Amino acid sequence: MQRLSEAQKVAFFSVSLNLAVTVAKGVLAFLTGSAALWAETLHSLTDLAASSATWVGIRLARLKSRAFPWGLYKVENLVSLLIAGAIFFAGYEIFREGVLGTRQVDLTNLPIAIPGLGVIIAAVFLFSWYERGKGEEYNSPALKADALHLRADSVSALVVLVSLVGAYFGFPYLEKGATVVVILFLLRAGGEVMLDALRSLLDASVDHATLDKIRETLAKDPRVSSIKRVMARNSGSVIFVMAELTLRSHSLKEAHAVADELEAAVKAEVPSIERVTIHYEPVEADHFTVAVPLEDMRGKVSQHFGGASYLALLKVDRRTLELKEQVVIPNPFAREEKGKGMKLAHFLVERGVDVVLSRESLEDKGPYYLFEAADVRCHVIDHPDLAAVIENLSELLGRDKSAAFRDSGARG
User: Fold this and answer.
1) Which terminus has fewer CB within 10 Å in the chain: N or C?
2) Which domains are assigned to the chain?
3) Taking the model in full, what pTM does it have?
4) Going by C-beta distance under 8 Å and a sequence separation of 6 or more, which residues neighbour residue 4?
């Protein structure tokens, strides 16, 4: 809410500045009788209308109702389209007056008009630079569009200033060359604003960098088995995210809690996200994997977890608890001096292990909490060798089959 409040303040400052600039230009036009300044005053009235629309759009974007349960965030994008139209109209007016027109500049009181208009141009340009920065900070398309419009206004006023200075020194045709440059600038600025607004209104994807950041945040959670799809779209100054995941979860309640934590993590990583919708499902499998730390290749069960020399990985049928496949691999972290238990735990989670049978109790140790977060079951056993473990698999895993693994969607 703090970000939204600050964005509204900046938009209100823009309205106040445009009102002051319009009045100041009108006063200078009245004192000098300059037709160019009168035209620029009328131009500033369109800026005032655009800034007012920006402020109103930002306020309306936060309203929600039964008719608009997703909010009115895209009002900002509609406002941006209006501002793009105002920019194009300003370009047309400048072209008509500055290139095609035959207007003669009144030299009366130019020493007052030139410095006065210079101060106005500087004030408008500096505020547009400030507003652009705030628009990026708050991810507000309306603020960014209004900043571009103000910058275009400062350049169009510069055209008038150049025409006044040129006329004062006897070079009245300088205005036409500068006008062409301004028109090109206006077309580019208006096109950028219009394209950004249309992309959001048409639900185009956010940039690749933001998508990658969201995907990386989800992937680093050990409870996420795989990421099927991540989509995100802009709506006004906020982002809506939809992700399809497979989770290591043994119950719907547990999976729901994991999804809530993932949503909070993504929002913390990308603050402009308004909502994250996570569609999760368990991994379909007809088996689960059991890991047993071994002391040697002959199958002696190790007294230690992280320091075990080998690991037996057993693929067990989910329904019958019969052994389907058996493989023994070296423990890649057995010779590590520090952290070998945690490294081995990460290794087993990445390999998709569902159950760890160890003679060493892991309770209240780092690997235990990692396994708990990844829904990997840990059991302490006293069987001397792998053959005894395999012989008693039904007894050792019976409670897991009846509880944690009865859901056919458990991690495999």
Assistant:
1) N
2) 2-201 (1.20.1510.10), 208-282 (3.30.70.1350), 287-402 (3.30.420.130)
3) 0.48
4) 58, 62, 138
